[in-house]
């Protein structure tokens, strides 16, 4: 099985959350075994410990990829969601291991705000830029309509209004009809 670093080198980023499936397979085998409950608890504890190490390594790779701008924020968010869903499944089915679950949950939660903060800042900048562009467009249109109304009040002919305001003849006709 490839490690998270191997996946990083091969640029197989979408496979990063699947690193935990090795633990899932082992946990199924433990659960299905004929071992005593105490032995199973010990094996599960060991497997959850390996799982925690795998998650730490996976998160480190995701963090590196994001810092290098090789993993866009949206993709990173989806990878973390998949990872979280898989972990929730494992804890629901095999987990009496609240401490490990809480540690892993904490690792992911502290990782997400750092990455999402940057994503939100990028999103805000993009949104502001788009909003300004749309607002400017809307303001220009309102100005054209206002000038056209004033020219209509002054009795200026349709062709001159169209030429002066860059409105379509249909838009000027609608304004005329609203008078």
Structure description:
This protein has 179 residues and is mainly alpha-helical. 81% of the residues lie in helices and 0% in strands. It contains 7 helices and no strands. α2 (21-32) packs antiparallel against α3 (37-67) and α5 (98-153) runs antiparallel to α6 (158-165). The longest helix has 56 residues, at 98-153.
What is the structure about, briefly put?
81% of the residues lie in helices and 0% in strands. It has seven helices and no strands.
Q: Secondary-structure element sequence?
A: HHHHHHH
* Separation, N- and C-terminal Cα atoms: 75 Å
Low-confidence stretches: none
Number of strands: 0
Q: What distinguishing features does this structure have?
A:
179 residues, mainly alpha, 7 helices, 0% strand
Topology record:
Layout: H1 4-9, H2 21-32, H3 37-67, H4 73-94, H5 98-153, H6 158-165, H7 169-178
Helix pairs in contact: 2-3, 3-5, 4-5, 5-6, 5-7
């Amino acid at each position: 099985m490839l490690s998270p670093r191997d996946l990083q080198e091969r640029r197989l980023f979408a496979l990063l959350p699947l690193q935990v499936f090795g633990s899932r397979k082992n946990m199924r085998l433990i659960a299905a075994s004929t071992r005593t409950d105490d032995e199973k608890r010990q094996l599960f504890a060991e497997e959850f410990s390996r799982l925690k190490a795998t998650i730490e390594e996976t998160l480190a790779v995701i963090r590196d990829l994001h810092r290098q701008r090789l993993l866009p924020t949206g993709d990173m968010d989806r990878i973390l969601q998949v990872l979280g869903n898989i972990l929730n499944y494992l804890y629901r089915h095999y987990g009496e291991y609240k401490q490990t679950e809480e540690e892993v949950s904490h690792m992911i939660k502290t990782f997400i705000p750092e990455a999402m903060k940057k994503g939100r800042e990028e999103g805000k900048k993009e949104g502001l830029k788009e909003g300004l562009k749309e607002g400017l467009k809307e303001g220009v249109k309102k100005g054209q309509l206002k000038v056209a109304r004033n020219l209509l009040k002054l009795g200026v002919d349709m062709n001159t209004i169209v030429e002066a305001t860059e409105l379509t003849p249909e838009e000027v006709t609608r304004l005329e009809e609203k008078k």
